[in-house]
Amino acid sequence: MRRLAAALAAALAVSGLAACGGPAADLPKTPVAAGPGITIRAEAVPLNATDAKQDRIGAFAYAGGLVLTSAQTSRLHGLSDLDVQPDGSLISVGDEGDLLKARLVLSADSRLTGLADARLTALTDLDGKPLQGKDNRDSEGLALMANGDLLISFERHDRIWLYPADGGPPRAVPSPAVKFPYNEGMEALAPDPARGPDAYFTGGETTGRTWSCTLTTACVDGPTVGLPLGFGLVAARRLPMGRTAWLLRAFNPITRSVIDLRITDAAGKTIDRMELRQPLTVDNFEGLAAVPQKDGAIRFYLISDDNFSSSQRTLLLAFDWKSPAGR
Questions:
Q1: Can you tell me the distance from the alpha carbon of 307 to that of 80, in angstroms, rounded to the nearest whole number?
Q2: Could you tell me if 211 and 176 are in contact, meaning their C-beta atoms sit under 8 angstroms apart?
Q3: Quick check: helix, strand or coil at residue 155?
Q4: What is this structure's pTM?
Q5: Which phi and psi (to 5°) does residue 169 adopt?
Q6: How many whole angstroms separate alpha carbon 324 and alpha carbon 263?
Q7: What is the CA radius of gyration of the chain?
Q8: Hey, which end of the chain has fewer CB within 10 Å, N or C?
Q9: Domains of the chain in sequence order
Q10: Chain segment 203-235, per-residue pLDDT in tens
Q11: Residue 252 forms beta bridges with which residues?
């Protein structure tokens, strides 16, 4: 395992590709004024550019996809997780300490067509000032709690902070009492409403270990997610009926990005899965939202972290999933 990992790291270094899932960052990172009122350009993308007729992957029906850009800020990049509410409100966190809020635009037949009312602001430190330094602002996971409070997990300087719904300063909340590998920490973070309104869970990227936490009690070990060779755990969401959706990601110079969205039952058994790889529309997907529908389906939204690289894209894709018969 160590030799294989070393060989892959060497290959990535030679090719100039970042181990975090794509080419090394090459877009300017100098902050441009970001705040209320940015306009996001949303360009539609097919599920498969080589087969216009493909509209599903197994039980996952494609419900539209977009490439997101903005000419008004250099900060609309690196989006690492998101939450979408039934009313269409979207919140996403970027791994340079940025917070995006917007509203989904859907067509008459509920297909994803755009984003409106977008605002992009900087996450603050405990003293109310914008986070400084990559090691302090590498925000990766997001959990929107029932009362509107927002939990955000950070890598490098590993921690979970709570940003109050009323806009007050953040505060630290319980996180796993473990030392994560550098830049390979808590990418997965999600509310855990079946355990209580203040419950949440998180997962380690490269180990698949998970922990259950509350705002007032220490994190305890949960199940370990089995990770195929080369894959990391990057997002998770609880679903109705005790199910959980897990988002796994792999990258290497040959296959490029490969994404595995799998759904497990309460016992941890996989009941369905979807794989995204070329020639399908795919990039470094790290964020996952799940919105239950009135007909029993789940609308999944996936967002990609472009690593501030001109050779990657910020994609937002939508899929509708219904449990296969008998599962």
A1: 9
A2: yes
A3: coil
A4: 0.89
A5: -65, 150
A6: 11
A7: 18
A8: N
A9: 2-321 (2.120.10)
A10: 999 999 999 999 999 999 999 999 999 999 999
A11: 256
